[in-house]
Specification:
With 152 residues, the protein is an alpha/beta fold. It contains 4 helices and 7 strands; from the N terminus they run αβαβαββαβββ. The chain has one domain: Glutaredoxin (3-Layer(aba) Sandwich). The N terminus is likely disordered.
């Protein structure tokens, strides 16, 4: 193996390790309803990605109020809301998009996957998946597509 190739491989490995270290040191605080199994499944996907996750079960009214307080419009709501390093994560957002958000640090409220799309993290059911978008919720309340996931 050439020195140039070895250097590239070492840099790639270092970058991957640093990404994992950032996730492992990052705490995601989740609030959810007590009986929501898909919320628990989503939390497990974050833990598998290396995040440290805390969760609190709250009454539905408190959950709705927390979403409103965080600046999440009703049309973007899902079953759980999380906070991570100053951002709000609404719904079944994939861990890799949270990592990207934390790397890029845009001026935004956070990310949202409205509703509960089949095939999103925590909503897996066999090989089926709906197409869905991860939305960047900007500080002014507008959104833009941050990532798109195809139907399967």
């Amino acid at each position: 193996m050439s020195d140039r190739r070895a250097t590239r491989l070492a840099a790639l490995a270092c970058g991957l390790l640093m990404s994992t270290a950032v996730s492992a040191a990052t705490v995601v605080d989740v609030i959810k309803g007590a009986s929501c199994g898909c919320c628990v499944a989503w939390i497990e996907t974050l833990e598998e990605a290396g995040f440290s996750v805390t969760s609190e079960d709250v009454a539905q009214g408190a959950l709705v109020q927390a979403k409103m307080d965080a600046g999440i419009p009703a049309d973007l709501a899902s079953c759980h809301t999380a906070k991570v390093d100053g951002y709000v994560i609404e719904g079944h957002v994939p861990a890799r998009e949270i990592e990207r958000l934390l790397d890029e640090r845009p001026d935004a409220i956070g990310l949202a996957v409205p509703g509960m799309p089949l095939g999103s993290p925590g909503m897996e059911y066999g090989d089926e998946a709906d197409a869905y978008d991860v939305l960047l919720v900007k500080a002014d309340g507008t959104t833009e597509v941050y990532a798109s996931y195809p139907a399967r």
